[in-house]
Design brief:
The protein is an alpha/beta fold. Helix content is 51%, strand content 11%. The protein has two domains: 3-142, NAD(P)-binding Rossmann-like Domain (Rossmann fold), CATH 3.40.50; 146-258, Orthogonal Bundle (N-(1-d-carboxylethyl)-l-norvaline Dehydrogenase, domain 2), CATH 1.10.1040.
């Protein structure tokens, strides 16, 4: 399909990540319709009933409420990009979305920083890869749902491990691996066990650890602890209780922070 044959693309949310994809779609030659928090999606859908894609670019905290409001005419065109994403997040709304595990960072007044190529799965995967390629951000299509789940778990292991470790030791991922490798490995193993319990699927821990290290090496100066780190720690502890998973290292960090 040539650029001129693309239907309009809808992006719900216009934070830093939404802006990156906006630039990519525009570079690809797509018309982009942005839906902001104050906008009524049903009214936008009435004007744009058959978009090429509806990319949900809201934060993790707003994902469920946003999916609950998606107009029926958009349901088969949805794509998701949130952190800590797992199939249950969309299955509860009966969606079959295109999903991208984002491995690049974009902060205000800074260029996009890529760690590793971002994997994408779903019927609109090629479009997302093309849009990112148009702005020189690498992405790749994965083969099937099992590969997608493995990639989502890998991203979750990376982001939850680094955030929780950062609450304890601060610093960058390079420093974490160089100075606190055993801590990083212990946290990562506990996060893996939680992810396996949440999904009912088990993947090779060694392969996930290797993937996490590859992402570390993609940007050794990446800060471990972002703004969402405290919330990720609390969420991990809450889910561990729900799924009856023992996470002694993470529990100790949580207790230390409360002192």
């Amino acid at each position: 399909m040539s650029a001129t044959e693309y239907k309009p693309v809808v992006i719900v949310g216009q934070g830093e990540m939404g802006k990156v994809f906006n630039c990519g779609f525009v570079a690809l030659g797509c018309e982009v319709q942005v839906v902001l928090r104050r906008d009524n999606m049903a009214e936008v859908a009435a004007r744009t009933a058959e978009p090429e894609l509806v990319l949900i670019a809201v934060g993790e905290a707003d994902l469920q409420s946003t999916l609950a409001e998606i107009p029926g005419v958009w349901r088969d065109r949805v794509a998701l990009l949130q952190n800590e994403l797992l199939p249950a997040d969309w299955q509860q709304h009966d969606f079959d979305p295109t999903v991208i595990s984002v491995w690049f960072e974009k902060k205000k007044d800074q260029d996009v920083k890529v760690l590793i190529p971002s994997p994408v799965y779903g019927k609109h995967a090629q479009l997302l890869v093309a849009a990112l390629s148009a702005i020189e951000v690498p992405a790749r299509v994965v083969a099937d749902e099992a590969d997608l789940l493995s990639e989502l778990i890998l991203k979750n292991v990376y982001i939850i491990t680094t955030n929780i470790a950062g609450l304890h030791v601060g610093g960058t991922v390079g420093e974490l691996w160089r100075k606190h490798r055993e801590l990083a490995q212990d946290i990562a193993r506990e996060v893996m066990q939680l992810q396996f319990a949440m999904t009912g699927e088990i993947f090779e821990p060694g392969k996930l650890m290797k993937g996490m290290l590859e992402a570390f090496n993609g940007d050794l100066d990446h800060k471990c602890m972002g703004r969402s780190a405290p919330a990720r720690l609390e969420r991990a502890l809450t889910l561990a209780k729900q799924y009856k998973i023992s996470m002694p290292t993470i529990e100790q960090i949580g207790l230390a922070l409360k002192k």
